[in-house]
Design a protein that fits this description.
heterodimer, A: mainly alpha, Ferritin, B: GMP Synthetase, Chain A, domain 3
């Protein structure tokens, strides 16, 4: 029972990470700076929605309450979401979006890489599948960080400012709680200290190539694993859930 | 809706039917040639088909699940179970050589080597993707993301043709 509870909690964490980032990137649809970039951001959004669907379908199965993937996406309130704080940060300008994607994609890459070794069959399969997709995501955001950082004076200042502003939300990606710690103990969830070390190396490599400075570690925001979020998540959900809330059971 | 009439087709014949279903987004090849059909089984008068999606968010998955039901229904088979099989993950290595040639004829450059790029952060070396029109090797990538999840955008510097490349995963 408890074992299942831990896994359910963890699946919410993973599913919400993908779902919320997917929604944020989808907001760029038809607003991208170039046609190719519009297509890229929405493709990455689609990969994230796909990963979220896989996770929520599995969650519905093991929870066994007769819910569907849509119930999880459209019928939970913000305190019932467990995504890392960084993915709900607003899109801002293109550099803000790229900075957010880069810091999170680097995390997802190293996270999924470790998760492929999970003793849980579903999580290992999810990780192997998602890793192939995230590899394209980190390359996309990483190359943009280099282009913007090593670009014009203005692009450099803007992307540096984006990275600096986002930094305080990065610590929360690696947070665990007692439920996740139990899963780590069992070899179901990966070691987050290891992921953090690998993440730092990737971030440093890209920032170096981009001639940018790595921000100093200071105060880190926390709370997402308890469902405590920034004011931005509620607005995102208002947008994402409006149709299902206003017209329950509406279908395509 | 339970159709209890006995299934008279063999597993091979069902594979042959599935091989006539075109990929919804790349109709030049069938879903069997794409490699998404992993297993076909007939047991207790039920046909079970294991499907492995290409990309987790690929919208075509929903479409060909429906197509499988529709095509088999024509043959009188209605007891169908579709299983989503996520492991091992789909890879472009499962595309047959015949399928790759069909892609090229259709105007989509097939995956080169069939292997994913090793350098995860920055591409290790420029990958040469010959132009689908003039076969020139002087081509460049315009975007790693194209009209569908599985394709990248390229352009030929020789004949100026823009074309799609089926990227490796």
């Amino acid at each position: 029972m408890t074992e299942n509870e831990n896994l359910i909690h963890y699946l919410f964490r993973l599913g919400d990470n993908s779902l919320i980032l997917g929604q944020r990137l989808a907001e760029w649809c038809s607003k991208g700076p170039t046609l190719e970039e519009d297509v890229a951001l929405t493709n990455i959004s689609l990969d994230n929605f796909g990963q979220a669907r896989m996770i929520f379908s599995h969650l519905a199965e093991i929870e066994g309450k007769g819910k569907t993937e849509d119930d999880y996406a459209f019928k939970r309130n913000e305190r019932q979401f467990y995504n890392a704080l960084i993915v709900e940060r607003p899109n801002g300008h293109f550099g803000n979006t790229i900075g957010r994607s880069f810091l999170f994609d680097a995390f997802q890459y190293h996270f999924y890489k470790e998760l492929t070794k999970s003793k849980n069959e579903f999580l290992a399969a999810l990780a192997a599948k998602s890793l192939k997709e995230v590899q394209y995501h980190i390359r996309h955001s990483g190359e943009w960080v280099v282009r913007l950082g090593d670009g014009t004076q203005e692009s450099k200042e803007k992307i540096q400012e984006s990275i600096n502003d986002l930094w305080e939300y990065t610590g929360d990606m690696f947070d665990t709680d007692s439920k996740i710690d139990a899963l780590i103990e069992e070899g179901i969830a990966p070691d987050y200290n290891l992921i953090k070390n690998n993440w730092i190396k990737t971030v440093e490599e890209v920032l170096y190539r981009a001639t940018l400075k790595k921000p100093e570690d200071g105060y880190m925001q926390t709370g997402s694993l308890d469902g405590r979020h920034s004011e931005f998540l509620g607005h995102l959900l208002g947008d994402m859930q409006y149709l299902q809330r206003a017209y329950p059971k509406a279908e395509w | 809706m339970n159709n209890t009439s006995e299934i008279k087709l063999t597993v091979d014949e069902i594979w042959a039917i599935l091989d006539t279903i075109p990929d919804p987004e790349v109709p030049a090849i069938s879903i069997v040639e794409l490699g998404v059909i992993r297993k076909v089984k007939i047991e207790n008068n039920i046909v079970t088909v294991n499907i492995t999606p290409t990309y987790s968010g690929c919208p075509a998955t929903e479409r060909f699940k429906q197509d499988i039901r529709d095509f088999l229904k024509i043959e009188g088979i209605e007891n169908i179970e579709l299983i989503m099989q996520y492991s091992p993950a789909w890879t472009t290595n499962w595309l047959t050589d015949v399928a790759k040639e069909k892609l090229r004829e259709y105007g989509i450059a097939p995956p080169i080597d069939g292997t994913e790029d090793k350098g995860f952060l920055f591409q290790s070396g420029p990958k040469i993707v010959p132009c689908v029109k003039c076969n020139s090797e002087d081509t460049e990538v315009t975007s790693q993301f194209g009209s569908t999840a599985c394709k990248a955008l390229y352009k030929c510097n020789n004949c100026l043709e823009p074309f799609e490349y089926f990227k490796c995963i």
